[in-house]
Amino acid sequence: MFFSRSKSVVGLDIGSSAVKLVELKEKKAGEYALQRVGIEPLSPEAIVDGSIMDSSLVVDAINKLAEESGARGTNYATSLAGHSVIIKKIQVPAMPPEELAESIQWEAEQYIPFDINDVRLDYMVLSPGDVHREGMEVLLVAVKRDKVNDYVSVITQAGKSPVVVDVDAFAVQNAYEANYDIDPQRVIALVNMGAGVTTINVLARGATVFWRDISIGGNQFTESLQREYSLSFEQAELLKRGDQVQGVSLAEARAVLDTVSTEMAAEIQKTFDFFAATSADDRVSKLVLAGGCAMTPNLTEVLTERFAVDVELMDPLKKIHYRESDFDIEWLQAVGPMLAVGVGLAVRKVGD
Q1: Res. 134: pLDDT tops 80
Q2: Do 281 and 202 share a domain, yes or no?
């Protein structure tokens, strides 16, 4: 369900601050054209800590996006992140595929901190090994069943068919691989910064080797501005984006934002330290940022100073073809990093 390619799908990134829709058309293998795109903001009470609290608000947002963007597809792919998602790389005894399919649930029980009956499970064999001598390396993904059901339900209520459920970390990786040439000699961290959760996916030797979600994101910036200057949510959001708000200078706002950026950098550092302590790979040499929070003023500079490596914003449309007359180019460039998960979902296929 989470892995595996064929009929195209509409990518639907249901985030806690907005729903993002991306529809692509595959021109030829690995080449895509942008057909439809849209972003619909969500009220803060619609999704809290990754849980859908008001499904009607989310359904309305999906319907509005589909109608206003003109999306034609009815098969949708979405993804999840946060504490309800567990990603583990495990070692299992070497065995034929059919035997692994039968035993994976028992193997998973040793690594999943939830009741195995309460999760949706999927896996991918990373290194087959020798059936007679070696163990196999398997990527295991488990997501709380009720969380999957909630996200599938809002898509169904909107009259669409949910055909793929992915996880944010792999959707961002799909978007990166569709737009960038991966250097197998470098260790790259894809850092997807949402409103409530930041997902880190480390690539080494051209493949994903480490993942972690941390509970810090755009909401922390907004809440800090609200507290410091007694602002409404909407005013704080404007300031966070670098827009002027009466009574607060951009310089004053920058000081608050930089404090939170420093806290975020410290959390990311903990992840990199853990990666370094548990992996034989080199240290991270590049950060690629995605998500709406990644566009916070001066965040890229704070991270560059902290880690002393290249830090850049992902352009998930870098190699995606589109006719400039069909889209607002300035808007696309302004919201680009917010579309990473949506693009990564839109390159999936029915049957994945």
Answers
A1: no
A2: yes
Q: CATH code at 289?
A: 3.30.420.40
- Domain range spanning residue 43? 1-83+145-179+318-352
Assess contact for 68 and 38: CB atoms under 8 A.
Answer: yes
pLDDT (0 to 100) of residue 130: 52
Percentages helix, strand, coil for the chain (3-state, rounded to 5) are 40, 30, 30
Compute the distance between CA of residue 6 and CA of residue 351 in angstroms, rounded to an integer.
7
Who contacts 80 (Cβ-Cβ below 8 Å, separation ≥6)? Answer: 50, 143, 147, 148, 151, 165, 166, 167, 168
User: At residue 4, does pLDDT exceed 60?
Assistant: no
Q: Where are the beta strands (DSSP E) in the chain?
A: 10-14, 18-28, 31-41, 47-48, 51-52, 75-80, 85-93, 119-127, 135-144, 161-167, 188-193, 198-204, 207-214, 286-290, 310-313
In the 8-state DSSP scheme, what is residue 118? G
Mean pLDDT of all residues in 35-46: 95
Q: How many domains does the chain have?
A: 3
Say yes or no: 121 and 150 in one domain.
no
Same domain, 268 and 198: yes
pLDDT at 5: 44
Would you say how long the chain is, in residues?
Answer: 352
> Model pTM?
0.92
Tokens for 90, please give them. 């495990």
Query: Residue 322 corresponds to which tokens in the numbers above?
Result: 């589109």
